[in-house]
Amino acid sequence: MICITGTKDIKLERTAIALGKFDGLHRGHQILIEKIKQYKSEGLKAVMFTFDFHPMALLRHRPVELIFTREERRAWAEKRGIDVLVEFPFTEETSAMEAEDFVRDILVRDMDAKVIVAGEDFHFGHQRKGDVPLLKKMGADLDFRVDVCKKLQIETEVYEDGRPTGKKMMRDISSTLIRECIRRGDMEEAAKMLGVPFSVSGTVIKGRQLGRKLGMPTANVVPPAHKIMPPNGVYSSCTLTGPYEYHSITNIGLNPTVADDNSKRMETYVYDFSGSLYGQEIEVQLFRFERPEMKFKDLDALKNQIFRDKARTMEYFGTQENRT
């Protein structure tokens, strides 16, 4: 996969382009990606067009909590057979570009779009004046096709003041809705919209090695900056390293029993793995919130709770402990 980032100097030929912020890479986004891949049979390059800087961060002048970091999005796109990922610079100049200029100069002239794929509610250009009807009109004039994807919906719990009401309603699958689920720790609901469990990737660093002393070594990862994180607590998880996948228990938080500072950590006990993960890139998938973070009176109480967490996680995954 070719990744074009940090430049507006782009020259491509014969492309099918999927347009979107692609910050959630949810099931709706996946339909767009599958659409452009179908056009590869016509000799077109499958191009995923997004921005190298989330538009809302510039427009609202504050960081946006990312469901996928830039690095995670690149890995996701490559795994799914994208030919070219364009991370277009989002600047004041970009935000002021008229929709017609964006289509004519960027998509058609520079990227040679033969097909443009977008969601039915997609808006772009200055003051979000660009939309699907505009794309279709310009497509007729500039000789490109427009493939429109309908919004996917999901039945979700209705919350008021952060509490479930027992009522359900149909809502569009969106990155905003996924963020709501992640913030309240509803990982299973988030996974339904993402199509995969929410995950955090990073390099394993050395911690205080307390877990090793307890006979439960942990893989420590510092969550990426601006990555949205669920509430502090313990999660049933899976840890992916290379081609291998292991059931695990993940604690997100401040480790109040033993920590000597207020830095947030993600520590994962990969209980069916033996060996060292230091320095390796891992992906930790969070499947279910098990309990809030707790402070224990001593290390024995902490160790006993970890055994209970492990039993609950093994039950969740339908596994049983190997006995020798």
Automatic annotation (TrEMBL):
<dbReference type="InterPro" id="IPR015865">
    <property type="entry name" value="Riboflavin_kinase_bac/euk"/>
</dbReference>
<dbReference type="GO" id="GO:0008531">
    <property type="term" value="F:riboflavin kinase activity"/>
</dbReference>
<dbReference type="InterPro" id="IPR014729">
    <property type="entry name" value="Rossmann-like_a/b/a_fold"/>
</dbReference>
<keyword id="KW-0547">Nucleotide-binding</keyword>
<comment type="similarity">
    <text>Belongs to the ribF family.</text>
</comment>
<comment type="pathway">
    <text>Cofactor biosynthesis; FAD biosynthesis; FAD from FMN: step 1/1.</text>
</comment>
<dbReference type="GO" id="GO:0003919">
    <property type="term" value="F:FMN adenylyltransferase activity"/>
</dbReference>
<dbReference type="InterPro" id="IPR002606">
    <property type="entry name" value="Riboflavin_kinase_bac"/>
</dbReference>
<dbReference type="GO" id="GO:0005524">
    <property type="term" value="F:ATP binding"/>
</dbReference>
<dbReference type="GO" id="GO:0009398">
    <property type="term" value="P:FMN biosynthetic process"/>
</dbReference>
<dbReference type="Pfam" id="PF06574">
    <property type="entry name" value="FAD_syn"/>
</dbReference>
<dbReference type="InterPro" id="IPR015864">
    <property type="entry name" value="FAD_synthase"/>
</dbReference>
<keyword id="KW-0808">Transferase</keyword>
<keyword id="KW-0511">Multifunctional enzyme</keyword>
<keyword id="KW-0418">Kinase</keyword>
<dbReference type="GO" id="GO:0009231">
    <property type="term" value="P:riboflavin biosynthetic process"/>
</dbReference>
<keyword id="KW-0067">ATP-binding</keyword>
<keyword id="KW-0274">FAD</keyword>
<protein>
    <recommendedName>
        <fullName>Riboflavin biosynthesis protein</fullName>
        <ecNumber>2.7.1.26</ecNumber>
        <ecNumber>2.7.7.2</ecNumber>
    </recommendedName>
</protein>
<keyword id="KW-0548">Nucleotidyltransferase</keyword>
<comment type="pathway">
    <text>Cofactor biosynthesis; FMN biosynthesis; FMN from riboflavin (ATP route): step 1/1.</text>
</comment>
<keyword id="KW-0288">FMN</keyword>
<keyword id="KW-0285">Flavoprotein</keyword>
<dbReference type="Pfam" id="PF01687">
    <property type="entry name" value="Flavokinase"/>
</dbReference>
<feature type="domain" description="Riboflavin kinase">
    <location>
        <begin position="193"/>
        <end position="318"/>
    </location>
</feature>
<dbReference type="InterPro" id="IPR023465">
    <property type="entry name" value="Riboflavin_kinase_dom_sf"/>
</dbReference>
<dbReference type="GO" id="GO:0006747">
    <property type="term" value="P:FAD biosynthetic process"/>
</dbReference>
<dbReference type="InterPro" id="IPR023468">
    <property type="entry name" value="Riboflavin_kinase"/>
</dbReference>
